[in-house]
Every structure is written in C-alpha cells, then in structure tokens.
Amino acid sequence: MARDPADPLDASPDTAPAADGLIEALSQYCGQSFEGEITSPPVEMDGDFAGQRLVMHVRECFEDEVRVPFHVGDNHSRTWLITRLDDGRLRLKHDHRHEDGSEDTLTQYGGESVFPPVSARVEFPADQFSKDLFEREGIPVSMDNTWIMEVTDTTFVYTLTRPNRLFEVTFDLTNPVDTPPTPWGWEGEE
Asked: Would you list the domain boundaries of the chain?
C-alpha cells in the first residue's frame, strides 16, 4: 500500500538510509520532491536537460516497488519504476509517456541488478528487452547502458553509464521542494 503523503515521515533528512536496500532508502522520502543538478561533465547530448529544473518526486511507495517521476522543466514524461523481484534482485524500468498519457516508443527500458542489493547503491545493466528495443530503434550504442541509483544520507544519485558516456544527476535530499504536477499518463493513479 502506498504511504499517504499527508502522514508525517518516519525519517528526517539527517537519518542515514536503510542498509538493506534502495527501495527502503527511497521509501523514507515517500511523498517528497527534491531538486537536482547535472553533476557529470557537460556534453552536447545532455542538451535537453541543461538549464532545466530537474526534480524527482518519490510519489508512490509499496513494500516491493517505488515509483519516482523525474521532471525535466515542463516535461513530465519520465517515471522510474524500481521493483523487487521474487529472488530479491531489483528491476529498474523507465516509463516514458507522451503528454496525452500514451506510451512513448522508447519506454519500459532498464535492467535488473545482478545480485540482491545489500546497500542503497544498485547497478542495473541493460536487460534483453532494452537491448532489443535499442537495436530496433536504431540506437545500438545504448545496448551497453548501465544505470546506477544510490541513496546516501543527503543525496540521491541517478547515473547512466556506458563506454564513452556518463550522465549523472545528484538530488539534494536535505531540502524538499514543491511537488511537480502529476506525471503524464499517471493522472488516473491518484
């Protein structure tokens, strides 16, 4: 069951994340939003993000799943879905929608952790579904993607890495900000 954002949080921003995993660490911030900034070296292909306000919203928290919309300026198309699998490993999917709520061609890509995580830092190498999608859509370079998510006592870091590519956004968990609009395609999920 999702935590009611109106309920007081059990953890303060000074509290270190739970040692047993990413879902637990993120769930401490359920209902809150945080601003971030690009912390990787600037490159031309990050142009859609440069100069935009970057906000993550820990929107919905369940025992085995967390849904985190990632807002880029007025673009509300992205939601990270982090799910615990039956064997304890985690799955990351990128849910991308158009403004009308329909799925983007490039959606549901991501990967699964190789082992069950033992900390709040998890690596997600691209899964076969994603590799097939990237090949079909003419971006085979993305087949080597690995996404990394990490929660510390003060930050959440989202990283995309592959040979000759690094994109990283660091969010300040010590300073909650106003919640952005509902992400595209999730309006009926209130």
From this structure: 22-184
